[in-house]
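#struct-pred
JK: can someone run the complex with pyridoxal-5'-phosphate? inputs below
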Amino acid sequence: MILADAILTLVSIVFGMMLRLEIIYSEYSLFGYFLREIWPFIIFAVFLRPTVFYFTGIYKHLWRYATWRDFIRLAESILLGSIILSLATLLIIYPLWMYTFPRSLLILEGMFSIFLLGGWRVVLKFSERYPGDFKWDKTVFNEFRRVLIVGAGSAGAQMARELWDNPQLNLRPVAMLDDDARKIGRKTQGLKVFGPIIKLPEIIQTQGIDEVIIAIPSAAEQTIQNLRHMCQVSQVSCSVVPPLSDILGTSSDSSFSKFRLPMSMPQITGEEIHAVVRVMQSRNLSIGAQTIAFEKSAAEVADAAYAVAVANGTAGLHLCVIAAGVGPDDEVITTPFSFVASANCILYERATPVFVDIDPETLNIDPGKIESAITSRTRAIIPVHIFGQPADMDPILAIAQRHNLLVIEDACEAIGAEYKGRRVGALGKAGTFAFYPNKQATAAEGGVLVTNDEEWANLFRSLRNQGRDQFDEWLMHSRLGYNYRLSELNAAVGMVQMKRIEDLLRKRESVANEYIKRLRKIEGVSPLRLALTTTRMSWFVYPVRFSEVINRDLVMTLLAERGIPSRPYFTPIHLQPFYRKRYDYKPGDFPESEKAGNSILALPFYADMKPEEVALVCDTLAEVVGEVKSSSSSA
Ligand SMILES: Cc1ncc(COP(=O)(O)O)c(C=O)c1O
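RT: done, structure tokens with the ligand placed:
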């Protein structure tokens, strides 16, 4: 760009000289006399113009745009350059090197510069907007919409950068708005920060705003609603960054209470948004650098040699079952106290899930009950690290070895958890992490298989990609496979989250500790007990267990009435309608799982949950539990 400007400045001078030569000094030759005399002027001018542009900010953003406002700023910049050029010529260049003072050349050069440099920017703009199809009759010269970014934090700054970098959006950030007194009056990303936020309608008016973007990911839903309302009243359009609840379709979900305290909430920062935009810009949307990087980070977290990303946790479990060679006549042992996918993955291969009840303390499969469930048809065991607490793996692995069974870990809820100091995931033959938005780290959707077996890793890569082997020719498929690929967009989000996994796990742990501290005071409500073998808990949800005298479902209803969402975990898999019908299961078959399923409630829980929010939940819970107890004792 700088070089182009310098060349065009040179061309402007040559044009100016030719005109001047013809009109005034036609008896002199252009190169023989005039150029010899004027070269110091040319050199100075060619350096000066880009330098002035640099200092007046033309290179910062303007070269990519071509609105009238930009054109005026460019003309101003050229005029400033011409003034400096005139002064330098008059005071230094003319007295030292030149016979005449080139007044008319200065004027002509300035005019040609405006024409050539301005025109060059217009051409750039259109060629950028219509790459490969640069037709003047098709182009529409849109004015940019003036954008106010609410939130001058990292998400706001990120948004400003994105808008600058993407002129085709036709959105121009012109100011920011924030409540932070330290930021008000200063500049962020070259934009003045106004404040406080309550002044939104006034700023919209005074700054001539066309569009407002709210970039405060941590704002309470109520704050967002208020801001939206102000925009509506001011008749400007408004969007929220990240509108994650919209993307996920959870905004109308009942998991958001009327006070908008969410049940769970992923931590999405400008980095995730930036990562997604970068992938879009790269045009490489599947099986690319992001997937590879995401896999590498997951392998590191699990201390595993290999990781393979797939579309979701269920797909990962399914591929493990296939890799284990499980077929229609086989049985696979697992726990009934889990999410239904832990057993569905066995049914996908037409094998039979055999349930083994849980240890009531840890809520994980009870190793002491596994051996009696093993038959000649048993092929594998799928322990689930429920709520992020590792199952008791050593006895499970020992049993598996004794009976020649494979162990597949359902670690969908337990990324980063440690069993006796060892990371879960690849303690058995293979395991799967899940990245749904309520998980410790999210990719919006996604799963990663981890294993230490290279053959299994290669098999997973083939199975997720329609059965194509690494060296298969184009559209050749060595085996029956699936489309379980993860998009680069998901992988990019997952990758950014994995970079912060330690921080995310630490934050969740401190929210859990806050809960533990406050729940001590509520009689009849117990937190999850951690096993001695759990050297690191990876908190997935925050479950509490009620004593038998407390009606859990009534507590849930009363909490909801007070604006606190909660969820029962889990209806045991064997009592799911489909399993009951197919296998004739009935209540009483797995009593510990059923007792847990009837008495556990998960409370709102997410990494960015504030201590005041935990306090609100616990105070409300104490109130509600008191009410439920007194109503049952008076009944
Ligand atoms: C224990 C368990 N297994 C499997 C899954 C399935 O993961 P996904 O929803 O990514 O398919 C989940 C998801 O919540 C889970 O909690």
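RT: quick notes.
The pocket of pyridoxal-5'-phosphate is lined by residues 312-314, 338-339, 341-342, 384, 410, 412-413, 434, 436, 447 (CB under 6 Å).
The chain has four domains: 2-138, 145-241, 285-499, 501-634.
JK: thanks, will look after standup
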